[in-house]
Queue: 2 jobs
Job 1
Amino acid sequence: MSTEFSRGLEGVIAAESALTYIDGQKGILAYVGIPIEELAEHSTFEETAFLLLHRRLPTRAELQKFQEELASQRPLHTHVMNVLKALPHQASPMALLRTAISVLGHFDPTPDDVSSTALREKAIKLISQMATLTAAIGRLRKDQEPIAPDPTLSHSANFLYMLTGKKPDAAAARVFDVALILQADHEFPASTFASLVVASTLSDVYSVISAALGALKGPLHGGASEQVIKMILEIGDPARAEQYIQEKLARHERIMGFGHRVYKTYDPRARILKRYSHQLAQQAHDARLFEIEQIVEKTVIDALGAKGIFPNVDFYSGTVCYYLGIEPALLTPIFAVSRIAGWMAHMIEYLSDNRLFRPTTRYVGPPLGHYIPIDQR
Ligand code: ACO
């Protein structure tokens, strides 16, 4: 047995997977062998989710059926909605989402069935429900009634409709769809690993996804996107951007949306989102935020690029969503709307050859001694 120790499991191979390939030095990302750039260009979120769940692209008929199944699972269970309505609406949207997923489990007649057939069915439900729940949370935060899903719309268009009450134009729906494709899986980040630790005990899928949501919520993981857009809005003026970042760097603060455990070059997802962010800025005739981002990016790369610190996916996802009219607090839940596909795909894959996760620690406590009775301490 290896006794090597790696803080944060850095560089440790903890499982085998046929889902996502990353080359962090060259900036390559591919799902089931297909480069992310090609999926962003030609695929849809539904097709990408099928690709991950089945580890192959669907036929036309399979895709049609998958889309219909997803659409049929969109409406929210009344009791889940009632629980959401009863909770403080200003609570963290990620905390609300985590609770809602847990509640959803109480209405599943077979929550403990972790066979791959059952998990593929539950995946369809969870992918649909994550979108409906996030849109409902977004509306409740603004004291608005949640909107019932429209089964004629695509997953992305329907999400934007449920959130804003307006059917998005094709271009907006497509941009959002690409954002979902880009975040659908990413090998073994903290959330996926946390989910598989729970899955490896043969616990139920709702516990597994609650664990994933808990890990995703943290600012060092999915929580970074919200911090990025808040930072860009706080900078507010391109003229202030460079000095703002220089001051942060001088205080040795981390700049959110930069750096990655695996990528030591430009994150390929950020490259695609940057293009969309630029496009949306032009369409909105409001380039201010994009200009700020350009200066922030240049300042950070000039200072830290040599250390392998470049924009990650969270840097541009914030402005893309902002230009689509989505408030910053919903960015991390939207990450989950996408990543639920990857979490479920990993759970199905891992359980097909399960081994309980049970690493060990290097003991650094006191040497073996004896219990001291309380009046002798
Ligand atoms: N800003 C400034 N310095 C940074 C940043 C950053 N964003 N990221 C890393 N560094 C520096 C560290 O201070 C450290 O410097 P040192 O060697 O002089 O001490 C060096 O780079 C290495 O940093 P580590 O923390 O060891 O790198 P790690 O692999 O653990 O970091 C992480 C990955 C946690 C993502 C980090 O880059 C970070 O905190 N980024 C900001 C948060 C963020 O954007 N998270 C989203 C990641 S993508 C995602 O989860 C979807």
Note: Residues 116-141 form the longest helix (26 residues).
Job 2
Amino acid sequence: MLKGKVAIITGGTRGIGLETVRAFKENNAEVIIFGSREETVNRAIMELEDEGYKVSGYYPNLNNYAEIESTIKNIIKKFNHIDILVNNAGISANKKIEETKSEDFAKIMNLNVNAIFNVSKSVIPYMKKNKGGVILNTSSMVSIYGQPSGVGYPASKFAVNGITKSLARELAPFNIRVNAVAPGVTKTDMVAALPEEQIAPLIQSIPLGRIGEPRDIANAFLFLASDMASYITGDILSVDGAARS
Ligand code: NAD
């Protein structure tokens, strides 16, 4: 589905991002992962190599525009074009507002929102030059209903939806599609570590009766990245088993 395409996946070292790397590699894309540290990027590269997949990796500071710009230039030198960008790196929060410092709020916005601006802005000129591309963002089901604590997280994901819908309209004339996937509770390290007594009521609240697997989300990214989604842009695709509140 992605033969000949070059894709960057931020937060590609574990969880949803890593599974998306696998789905893209199975479909013959060239994949470059961005992670936060050299050590985790190298570990993911080795893990993927053991599975038979060859990927490249970088660890630019996603809040440093100049650093991202020079990384993107290096990638273009090596691969000539960038066709797909998946802005997936993100952190969450769950503290009540009284326990949340303004620095905590800023930290979430810096990674979940500002980093999407920085990486997208660096890649878009090359997509325009190449007469097309796909930008995909990781939103969340909390971007629809909010959540009862950890206000920075839903705030950031509402912003992700705003970026998605607005860039979709701005970039449509350049044949660049922009969409987001809004996962529900998904079994990444964080969720897998929850005790059974927390998992059971969580599952009960999901109409499809199970927690999402990283592959459920990766498949949505794969579809939206492929030409099968050629007339879809500006959409926020919920992948949450109908757990919408
Ligand atoms: P995860 O913690 O397993 O992975 C997060 C990824 O982001 C890692 O690859 C990590 O290296 C990267 N990252 C973290 N801080 C970074 C930084 N400062 N700079 C660069 N990269 C950084 O989490 P996940 O569950 O796979 O989450 C991936 C995305 O999915 C996030 O945007 C998250 O908000 C979203 N999401 C997750 C769930 C869920 O239940 N797991 C639900 C909805 C949305």
Note: The mean pLDDT is 96.
